[in-house]
Protein: GntR family transcriptional regulator
Organism: Reyranella aquatilis
Amino acid sequence: MAFSDVSTPDVGALFERVPKATLRAHVVERLRGAILAGDIPPGAPLVETSLSERFEVSRGPLREALRQLIEEGLVVTVPYTGTRVAELSVEDVHEIYSLRTVLETFAFEQVWPRRDDRFRAELRRRNEALIASIDAGDDRASILNELEFHGLVYEVSGHRLLQRAWNGLRGRLQLYWAAHHRAHGRRGPKRDSHDSYIKAAFGADLEAMRREIADHMRRGVETTERFLRTMPTSSGKPKRGDNS
Amino acid sequence: MAFSDVSTPDVGALFERVPKATLRAHVVERLRGAILAGDIPPGAPLVETSLSERFEVSRGPLREALRQLIEEGLVVTVPYTGTRVAELSVEDVHEIYSLRTVLETFAFEQVWPRRDDRFRAELRRRNEALIASIDAGDDRASILNELEFHGLVYEVSGHRLLQRAWNGLRGRLQLYWAAHHRAHGRRGPKRDSHDSYIKAAFGADLEAMRREIADHMRRGVETTERFLRTMPTSSGKPKRGDNS
DNA sequence: CTGTGCCAGATTGTCAACAATCGACCATCA
DNA sequence: TGATGGTCGATTGTTGACAATCTGGCACAG
């Protein structure tokens, strides 16, 4: 999955410590998947006891899983009262995309001087995978592929805190994209947008790349914002105890 | 504490919901304080059972507190084996300061067009508080004041995700500064550095402010890196079960 | 002397019961 | 009718005991 594994099979990796998966990690994956798939829509209550029997775990690991999803921005909680899936808002969209612009630009600045051919090749490969999934009409794969595409530059940067910051945005972004694709079916033709992105990434002009990133994000925030405005408020607040 | 409270006493705030403090939150504060004060030095093991009796809590809340400190970068853990205070490294210093440069520049760009006089006044106030604590030789207060000083622009930006990113850096920064000040006593004369920072912040030239931030961070990373190199490796890894 | 397998202690992971708190509902009264 | 106070169910917070896993050292064979 990591960039270095893509092009250079590392024999040493075969002997890597494979830590036994904890229940918490498992619950995080499943719960995150359920939220991003829309099985549990934004605003829906997340009751610890219900979830613990749904996932067949006790409340201990479940609580820790919820805390992690709170960190990722997928879940919000208020002490002694309740926990629910995060709601969507236009303010968040602006924050996500503006910060993303800054981070992705910085990531490219880190990678740029290296003239890394493997990076570029892998970027093209991921772009083709993305195009393929779009053409196939597979929305779920398209979202994942788009995240993989944009994630590459963070991986290659080797900047762990930067990767961490990207991870903090990734889940939030996915939440919006997933809601969008559920509401509107396949997402518009992104092909052109990615073509120019790729072209700039392969060029020699860093300033042009900066502009390209800014434009790319501008288009993203417009699309997402327009979508959000069509569903005025995601729902009348569900009261305590409903489990739609 | 929030910026808006500084200049405009808000009567409504008196009636604000004051959430009952949970044990977890309390433990987080105390444990973080102990780490940042150096009571528990980098690399020292954090055994859940010991800590739970030290803080007179059960392991449940304590574990959740540890998870939060992991998020903040103050603690590292490996499943089924152990948890310890994060070690210091020069790579981390570079990452912290480079990301900080990007974020703080972005924060200033957000605030800049507003020509916010209250922001500038508060910035000056916090700078004077910082100078005062430096002159008084109070290292602990100086660190806190420096964080408050730089934190202002994030608060004023109103950008929650940006504030969140800053919070992710804040603890890590504090860890290094605290170690530095324990090793070397009072930190060098930062007065000049802050004078030019303030001057640029009050000027009209955003580009000059960008340069000032970059320079400021460059000085910071140099100082911290030089300090780290004097303590080659913070210690031979303490073995399992030692509790220094 | 070197490597290998096993054992014991230490540490984290998990569970199920209990306590504290909150929010909605309803009866009551001005 | 509108406000007010109490009560009850629902939900999260906390606890102590138990299970799973890892690490380091030691005996033993080569």
Observations:
- Chain B touches chain A at residues 19-20, 22, 60, 63-64, 67-68, 71, 78-80, 92, 95-96, 98-99, 102-103, 106, 159-162, 164-165, 168-169 (CB under 8 Å).
- DSSP finds ten helices and two strands in chain B.
